[in-house]
Amino acid sequence: MSISNLGILISGQLTRILISGYSIDWTQTSLFYCKFRTYSLQTFSNVSLAYLSLATIDQYLSTCSRPQWQQWSNIRVAHRLAILVVLLGLICNIPYAIYYVHNQSPTTGGITCTSTNDIFQRYMNYVSGITLTRILPIGLIILFGILSYRNIQQLARQTSVITFFTITPYIVVYCLLLVFNANDHPAIFNNLQATNSIALSVYYLYFASPFYIYFCASARFRRQLKYVLFDVHFNQCCRRITPVN
């Protein structure tokens, strides 16, 4: 999940900073990057949310009182599901790499990276955009987070709360943008676009937050972090720079 979150921050947030802050949009100059960014961003997002959902379900299964459910919480099942999630993410998001193209505006002449296929656009808006990457994972995370909260540490509850408050605003604004289009409601659409930029920044915060959640809530994680940073890497650096007499 950490690799997926890092991939989202690099392909999504970094590009957003370059576009908004420095007016550098590689998706307009390179068709390959237009397709690659959309495909990788969608794949990393699906994989990350799927892993978090599976981790929450695993927490519930491992603390469940029924032995027949506890047996599903094992490393073999986890490895198989992890590989399956990656394969499904890579395969199911191939249409993003196919249908995203450069589209030139007839009025301004500007080039945008977007999809011009109506069927895929509806799939992207209502199936992939709302259900698969937003409502479904949030529902699973909150549901199994609440169910397992009584048996495990407070971390499950904190993860569910962080997920809800970072992703939900983006879902609401995203749905409103589907209702109000630019032609019929230009003023509302422009305001929603500005709100969407803020909500999108909060949405990216979710993918950067797990480290801080675990650091604040888990003493074991802090001990492990201290061991890796100081006892392993810092001591190795000190031994390398120590002069040999």
UniProtKB/TrEMBL annotation:
<feature type="transmembrane region" description="Helical">
    <location>
        <begin position="126"/>
        <end position="149"/>
    </location>
</feature>
<feature type="transmembrane region" description="Helical">
    <location>
        <begin position="200"/>
        <end position="217"/>
    </location>
</feature>
<feature type="transmembrane region" description="Helical">
    <location>
        <begin position="161"/>
        <end position="180"/>
    </location>
</feature>
<keyword id="KW-0807">Transducer</keyword>
<feature type="domain" description="G-protein coupled receptors family 1 profile">
    <location>
        <begin position="1"/>
        <end position="152"/>
    </location>
</feature>
<keyword id="KW-0812">Transmembrane</keyword>
<keyword id="KW-0472">Membrane</keyword>
<dbReference type="InterPro" id="IPR017452">
    <property type="entry name" value="GPCR_Rhodpsn_7TM"/>
</dbReference>
<dbReference type="GO" id="GO:0008188">
    <property type="term" value="F:neuropeptide receptor activity"/>
</dbReference>
<keyword id="KW-0675">Receptor</keyword>
<feature type="transmembrane region" description="Helical">
    <location>
        <begin position="81"/>
        <end position="101"/>
    </location>
</feature>
<protein>
    <recommendedName>
        <fullName>G-protein coupled receptors family 1 profile domain-containing protein</fullName>
    </recommendedName>
</protein>
<keyword id="KW-1133">Transmembrane helix</keyword>
<keyword id="KW-0297">G-protein coupled receptor</keyword>
<dbReference type="GO" id="GO:0005886">
    <property type="term" value="C:plasma membrane"/>
</dbReference>
